Amino acid sequence: MSNTKVHELITTPARERTKINKIREASASLAEMNLEGTTERIADITGFDEETVKESQMRSAMTNTLSLDHAYGSTRPNGDMQETTLMSNAALVEHNDAAEMVELQADILSVLTRNLKPKEAEFITLRYGIKDGNSYTLTECAKMIGVSYSRAQQLSKSCIKKLQKADEAKALQEYLLTLS
């Protein structure tokens, strides 16, 4: 990645934006009725639990999200004004995609370290190319981590079973769906 400020381009996932918008709408409707927008009332209106409402309100208050389709102006060195959208700048869109991939990679590695032993996590990252994008065959993975081919087969099966049973499995599946 280049030295541009990639963190400014990361967008809130669609499911989170939907939650935030639903909560904002509930707050606005309560304000129109001259009622205080308490967490409890908002939770009743939206159907979310109070903890979800609190988290979404905090995220919403803490973020300074840039719109990808809003026109932003900048002054060139010669004094001319240049207006552009972030989506029209291919390099920025590529950086946004790269940032999403880094975030996904970090999420996957986090799930692996919480649910697998170190050797198992290393095996899965090699087998599926999670760290560097290069996936390896069972034979190659076995050689790299110093186990037999049959042990690599066993590791593969046991790791997949552990990850399918992991608490985060459903959350990761949902996350992957938002990226596709």
Largest sheet: 2 strands, antiparallel
CATH superfamily of the largest domain: Winged helix-like DNA-binding domain superfamily/Winged helix DNA-binding domain
Strand line-up in the sheet with most strands: 1-2
- Average of the residue pLDDT scores: 75
Give the SSE order as H and E letters: HHHEEHHHHH
- Quaternary status: single chain
Question: Could you characterize what this model shows?
Answer:
The chain has 8 helices and 2 strands; from the N terminus they run αααββααααα. With 180 residues, the chain is mainly alpha-helical. It folds into 2 domains: 54 residues; 92 residues, Arc Repressor Mutant, subunit A (Orthogonal Bundle). A two-stranded antiparallel ribbon has the order 1-2. α2 crosses α3 and α4 packs antiparallel against α8.
List keywords for this structure.
180 residues, mainly alpha, Arc Repressor Mutant, subunit A, 2 domains, two-stranded antiparallel sheet, 2 strands, flat
